[in-house]
Every structure is written in structure tokens, then in C-alpha cells.
Design goal:
Radius of gyration: 16 Å
Largest sheet: 7 strands, mixed
Strand content: 15-25%
CATH topology: Aminopeptidase
CATH architecture: 3-Layer(aba) Sandwich
Shape: globular
Structural class: alpha+beta
Distance between the termini: 34 Å
CATH superfamily: Gcn5-related N-acetyltransferase (GNAT)
Bound molecules: coenzyme A
Number of domains: 1
CATH class: Alpha Beta
């Protein structure tokens, strides 16, 4: 199967599909329909017919920092290089725009991508790397805002009950 990566917004039908599918993974806490529809920086993987098969949701935290928020490939299309292409394209685009990148994941596949691309990793937000410490409050306040969302809180609780504590989250930055 051939696929292409483009940056575009997604339709309501695509967003609804993603919300349903993301409910099945322990690794992404979830985003609301409103969040998906307003997001400007989505890398989309499309098949030959333009059907969405994967996404990487990205957004700017400010003029300097960019967050890679959610990497997701529909289950039947995994293991074909789509996730890697989406993640790499998102990193490349952010660096081109001279933004530092912040990402976090508990999925070993994504953590390996962070390693391969030379992210500085840390296990806890409190241990923010010294060289970027002047920006840590931006990340902290963003993380609180991110959490302060009733859909996400419900999903976090539901997923903890369903999947247990799971692997720990790893954080990474790349400049
Ligand atoms: C994580 C995810 C996006 C990966 O997408 P994918 O298209 O299957 O990944 P790719 O085919 O591009 O593989 C990327 C790398 O992981 C490896 N990989 C893929 N599936 C793997 C598996 N099940 N076990 C171990 N390694 C795997 C590939 O060999 C490749 O390694 P390489 O860099 O050495 O070539 C996908 O599994 C997914 O959507 N998972 C659910 C959501 C999620 O966990 N998102 C990440 C949290 S932010």
C-alpha cells in the first residue's frame, strides 16, 4: 500500500473515527472533537484514495515551543512505516520553523523514535533538563491546562481502570 504524508485539518467524520479508535489505546488520553477540529498542525497519512490512515497531532505552545501531542495509526495499517513517517515529518516541520519540540509517550515504539532522533529524555516533568529550565514553567502550565479538561479526566480514569498503570511516561525535548 502506498501512503502519503500531508499537513491538513481533518473532517468531522475523520475526527469522530479517531476519537473512537483512540479510546482503544492506553497510550493516548484523548482529545475532544472540538480540539481535533480546531487543530491546524495535523500531519495526516492518507492512502491512495485520500482516506486517513494515521495522524500526528501537533501544536505550538508559543513562538518557540511546539508539542507533538498524539501519534496514531489505524490498527490495520500499523507496522508499515506510517507512524515513523508521521513522527519524523512532524519533527522536521517544527525544526524548519525553528521551534523546539516537546513530546511525551509511554509507548516503546514512540520512545525509540525519540531516541533515534536525538531527543533529550527525562522521566519526570520535575526533572526538566537544566539547559531548557528557563522554559519549564511554560511546559508545566501547558500540562495543567491540558489536564483541566473533563473529557480527558474521564478518559484517564477509564483507561487506568481498564488497562492498569501501564508503562511509565517518558518526556523528551529536541532543539
Ligand atoms: C505507535 C504507532 C503510531 C506506531 O505506528 P506504526 O505505523 O505501526 O509504526 P512504524 O511501522 O512506523 O514503525 C516504527 C518503528 O517501530 C517498530 N515497530 C512497529 N511496530 C512494532 C511492534 N509492534 N513492536 C515492536 N516494534 C515495532 C518498527 O519496526 C519501526 O522500527 P524502525 O525505526 O527500527 O524501523 C502505532 O502503533 C499506534 O498508533 N499505536 C497506538 C497509539 C500509540 O500508542 N501512539 C503513541 C503514543 S503518543
Amino acid at each position: 500500500m502506498n501512503f502519503r504524508i500531508i499537513q491538513r485539518q481533518i473532517s468531522e467524520a475523520e475526527a469522530k473515527l479517531l476519537i473512537q479508535e483512540i479510546k482503544k489505546t492506553p497510550y493516548i488520553m484523548g482529545y475532544t472533537l472540538k480540539e481535533w477540529l480546531k487543530a491546524q498542525n495535523i500531519m495526516v497519512a492518507e492512502d491512495e484514495n485520500g482516506n486517513l490512515v494515521g495522524v500526528c497531532l501537533n501544536y505550538d505552545l508559543n513562538q518557540k515551543w511546539h508539542k507533538i501531542a498524539a501519534l496514531f495509526v489505524l490498527e490495520e495499517f500499523r507496522g508499515r512505516g506510517i507512524g515513523k513517517s508521521l513522527f519524523y515529518a512532524s519533527v522536521e516541520k517544527a525544526l524548519e520553523r525553528e521551534h523546539n519540540i516537546y513530546a511525551s509517550s509511554a509507548n516503546p515504539i514512540t520512545i525509540k523514535m525519540m531516541d533515534d532522533l536525538g531527543f533529550t529524555k527525562f522521566d519526570n516533568l520535575i526533572d526538566f533538563p537544566m539547559e531548557y529550565s528557563q522554559d519549564k514553567w511554560l511546559i508545566y502550565s501547558h500540562s495543567l491546562k491540558w489536564l483541566f479538561n473533563s473529557y480527558r479526566v474521564r478518559e484517564i480514569i477509564r483507561k487506568k481502570i481498564l488497562y492498569g498503570l501501564g508503562e511509565p511516561f517518558v518526556y523528551g525535548v529536541k532543539c
